[in-house]
Amino acid sequence: MLVQKYTLLPGTSYATPYYVAQSARPGPTAMIVAGIHGNETGSIQAARRLVRMLGTDELRLHTGRLVIVPTVHRRAYRQRIRGVPDLNRTFPRKAGQTAKHPLSAALFDTARRYRPSWYLDLHEANGLSQQNSKVLGQTLITDPGSRSVSAARKIIKGVNRTIRAKSQSFNLRLHELPGSSRTAAARILGARTVTVETGWSLPFSTRVQYQIDVVRRFLGEAGLTKS
């Protein structure tokens, strides 16, 4: 399987690599981004590990194409900060608009070029949603009325069966967030979009594994890998 490395904004202080894996068989395109917020390190590590898994054939595409941007905001990641301004409020809100930051513009232009059917945005958040319905830790988020709702419910059900500590189980949140990469990809590109939020209070290795598990299940649901 061919995996090629490219760079967003090469030659600038925002330069960051991304990877494109191409199966020998035609099929849908999925896109995974992480590190829009530089302090959400579990999701970044999960995306980086997924790239390594592609390189060793531990993760192999059955059909289609997979685009991974492991660390979108490397400057914020180096400082372990969310980022100023919040990059996830700078994406275009409707067709014809331009993004408000060079990184969000470059990322969205890349998404526009590959036209993913599925777009997963990996994040981390405070709290555990099983214990507090107002927090986002351990949730999958998509826009109300999204075509990804049924798949998200299915993935949550499958993941939760594997979780022994029920306080760590995932929940679904339906929430449109204008300016975010997820809502931009849904509104403008028509992609099925989901934000994956693991809970910061969990051990780092546990968060990384949850992220990888959720992504792999979505890739199976999208038809890129064998379920």
List descriptors.
227 residues; metal ion binding; zinc; hydrolase; metal-binding
Characterise this structure:
There is one protein chain. The protein has helices spanning 41-55, 74-79, 102-114, 149-161, 181-189, 204-222; strands at residues 2-8, 16-22, 29-34, 65-69, 118-125, 139-142, 171-174, 192-199. Helix 4 (149-161) packs across helix 6 (204-222). It is an alpha/beta fold and 227 residues long. It has a single domain (2-222), classed as Zn peptidases (Aminopeptidase, 3-Layer(aba) Sandwich). The chain has an 8-stranded mixed beta sheet with strand order 1-2-4-3-5-8-6-7, sandwiched between helices.
Computed over alpha carbons, the radius of gyration is 16 Å
Instruction: Tell me the overall shape.
Output: globular
Low-confidence stretches: none
CATH fold name? Aminopeptidase
H/E topology pattern? EEEHEHHEEHEHEH
What number of structural domains do the residues give? 1
Oligomer: single chain
CATH architectural category = 3-Layer(aba) Sandwich
Total beta strand runs? 8
Output the CATH class name. Answer: Alpha Beta
Tally of individual helices: 6
Spatial strand arrangement across the major sheet: 1-2-4-3-5-8-6-7
Q: Which class of secondary structure composition applies to the elements?
A: alpha/beta
The N- to C-terminal Cα distance equals 18 Å
Give the % helix.
Answer: 25-40%
The H-level CATH homologous superfamily, spelled out, is Zn peptidases
Instruction: Give the overall average pLDDT.
Output: 96
User: What proportion of the residues form beta strands (DSSP E)?
Assistant: 15-25%
Largest sheet: number of strands, sense, barrel closure: 8 strands, mixed
Pfam families: AstE_AspA_cat (PF24827)
Organism: Paenibacillus woosongensis
Keywords: Hydrolase, Metal-binding, Zinc
Protein name: Deacylase
